[in-house]
Amino acid sequence: MIDLGISKLVMIGAVALIVIGPEKLPRVARTVGTLLGKAQRYVSEVKAEVSRSMELDELKKMKDSVESVAKDVSQSMQTSAADFEKTWADATQVANGPGSDYQLALPEPVPEYRHPKKNWRLKQGATPHWFKARTGVRTKALSGAARVARFRPTQFD
Fold this sequence. Notes:
The chain is mainly alpha-helical. It is built from 4 helices and no strands. The N and C termini lie far apart (107 Å).
């Protein structure tokens, strides 16, 4: 990096004042400041992009390792399942073979459960109808038009 101290900056400013002149110096200083700001933003964007690409490479490596472990696990599961099926087939073949002492006794089929006197389509409330009638609770729903027709005042001719 460039090592710029206070004394060097003062010398550069004095030379710029003499060469450029006092009228154009503020405009040149603003232009140089904006260019330096743009350069700093560009450098920070490049650094961010490099760090993102490095993180992406690390994630790809991690993904590859997880996929390889998953393949190993699935392969071991398949081999153990195949071994189990083979031993199960051997065991059932020995048990069901002729002259075997092992007889597979199947239980009687379980009867289907039927709830007595229950109609699931019919919903019954816990409050009896006689109580609802005595206390004035509506038991039937009316549509809006039926309610208007019921409570419309009679017209006198």
